Every structure is written in structure tokens, then in C-alpha cells.
């Protein structure tokens, strides 16, 4: 099982903790790109897909663990798109 498959399996279980960098890897694998321009270049990070879906995630700091609502949002979004 590849590392991305392990991360997808972990996200699908909706864990209590999930690292922002791991979420970024899954999103890139699913076809999303991080938009590093404009107002979202700080702690708000915009991700966009080729089919026009975009959303903003809060980049946690000082540690890199996502909030529970972001974990649920990502899991639900990727499941709806059939990528999880």
C-alpha cells in the first residue's frame, strides 16, 4: 500500500488529528492545486480543482494539525468526488 493510500485510509476514518501537510498531499493527488497568491497567501490557503471547485482551509500554526471541522470537510468533499 502506497503512502498516499495510507493517508486516504486515515482521512476516511475521520481521525481526531490530521496533519496539514498530509492533507495538502492528498489534495494534490486528487487534482487540487494550492493558490499561493493574493489574500490566501497567509494562514488561509485556497485550493482549486480543474473543474472549478475551490475552497479555503486554515493553515494551522504553530503546529500543523488541522481542526476537526476541517478534517470532516476534507473527508466529505473527497468522498463526494469519489477520490477517497
Bin the helical content.
25-40%
Major beta-sheet overview: 3 strands, antiparallel
In total, the number of strands is: 3
Sheet with most strands: strand arrangement: 1-2-3
Number of helices: 3
Q: What is the string of helix and strand elements?
A: HHEEEH
Mean pLDDT: 90
**Structural class, please?**
alpha+beta
Shape: globular
Strand content: 15-25%
* Beginning-to-end CA distance, first to last residue: 14 Å
| Low confidence ranges | none
Number of domains: 1
**Radius of gyration computed on alpha carbons:** 12 Å
Explain this structure.
The chain is an alpha+beta fold and 84 residues long. Helix content is 39%, strand content 18%. The protein is globular.
Observed structural traits:
alpha+beta; 84 residues
Secondary structure elements and their pairing?
Elements: H1 3-12, H2 20-29, E1 32-35, E2 44-49, E3 54-58, H3 68-80
Helix pairs in contact: 1-2
Could you give a short description of this structure?
With 84 residues, this protein is an alpha+beta fold.
Amino acid at each position: 500500500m502506497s503512502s498516499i493510500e495510507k493517508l486516504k485510509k486515515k482521512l476516511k476514518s475521520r481521525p481526531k488529528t490530521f496533519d496539514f501537510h498530509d492533507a495538502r498531499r492528498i489534495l494534490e493527488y486528487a487534482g487540487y492545486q494550492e493558490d499561493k497568491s493574493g489574500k490566501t497567501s497567509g494562514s488561509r490557503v485556497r485550493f482549486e480543482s480543474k473543474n472549478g471547485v475551490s475552497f479555503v482551509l486554515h493553515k494551522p500554526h504553530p503546529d500543523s494539525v488541522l481542526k476537526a471541522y476541517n478534517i470532516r470537510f476534507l473527508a466529505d468533499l473527497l468522498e463526494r468526488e469519489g477520490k477517497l
